[in-house]
């Protein structure tokens, strides 16, 4: 039988990492000493107290049943408390907090609640892939907002023309940003609120990296600015904050009508988060503050080894104030892809080509700080000898 895929799958952008993935597997198979800076997944384990709570909770058979779709009251309360403590944002746990099976799930599903075929969605480029694919699945037309160096990797809202802005129903923003490592200030969020109000656009702010920050910098939340809750929601996650990517716990918080729409979609697709995982998530939120500083010290050290080292070698790269990503401009005659390829071929270092995150990511490669400083120093050494010797 001829299996024919739906149009929506054909509309997805080509998976540009395939060739790199293949080359990486081949190199690993040959026993080459790979240093993998390609994966945006914390390499350090989930805190012990979270694991212990999962064990304890999963021994209780009442956790084995379907979970309520909106999550445990206790989890929603803890999420609200965490937002209050961290951002001084007031959230009603009853309907202004919605637990998710990881924030990716909510990001990918939210357009289904608000987009009709032909509506436009504003998506940053480069950007986290589900902003685009979720919009495509809902039948949206995607309007990309380029994140350019000259704008400090913030979208230029003034450049979004009247007609496009009027057709738009939803927009994604993401600070601290993956893949550029850029941050924004409250003034930017104020501008977003104004833009969204004027054009009646639902704002989806993705703050997955708000706790991964360095040099005393503390990223703001979209919900810290006046009027934000009138126009949108913020996505957050335990994944990066508490080294819990595999656990699948995230949340959307903010506008209750927007969350009701997302909850309705979810009620028809999933059946909630394993209750024992929710109970472990409560512990993470309660006690996690003590983990944050230790984690960020680890990332600061890695960042400094890699960026200082490469800068010294002659590869000029900016130090990010947040996220574990280094957004490095290509050098020589290289484009994103050829640099990623030659780095792997000649130095056994895996990086991600920037254009894999969208056309406007061309001219950069992304390196993730998910390996030890010793390995990063080794990476610097190899790059220096091979390209700058
Ligand atoms: C990792 C990441 C997330 C978190 O995804 P989860 O589904 O919560 O694990 C969200 N947004 C961005 C930009 C990310 O890089």
The oligomeric state is single chain
Number of helices: 15
Distance between the termini: 57 Å
For the record, what CATH class of the largest domain applies? Alpha Beta
List each distinct ligand once. Answer: pyridoxal-5'-phosphate
CATH architecture of the largest domain: 3-Layer(aba) Sandwich
The tally of domains stands at: 2
Taken in chain order, the helices and strands follow as HHEHHEHEHEHEHEHEHEHHHEHEEEH
Tell me the helix content: 40-55%
Q: So, the CATH homologous superfamily of the largest domain? A: Type I PLP-dependent aspartate aminotransferase-like (Major domain)
Average pLDDT? 96
* CATH-derived topology of the largest domain: Aspartate Aminotransferase, domain 2
Question: Major sheet: order of its strands?
Answer: 2-8-7-6-5-3-4
Shape: globular
Query: How would you characterize the largest beta sheet?
Result: 7 strands, mixed
Rg over CA atoms: 21 Å
Structural class: alpha/beta
- Please count the beta strands (DSSP E, at least 2 residues each): 12
Task: Write up this protein.
43% of the residues lie in helices and 14% in strands. It has 389 residues and is an alpha/beta fold. The strands form 3 sheets. It has a 7-stranded mixed sheet with strand order 2-8-7-6-5-3-4, with helices on both faces. The model has no long low-confidence stretch (mean pLDDT 96). It binds pyridoxal-5'-phosphate. Pyridoxal-5'-phosphate binds next to helix 5 and helix 10.
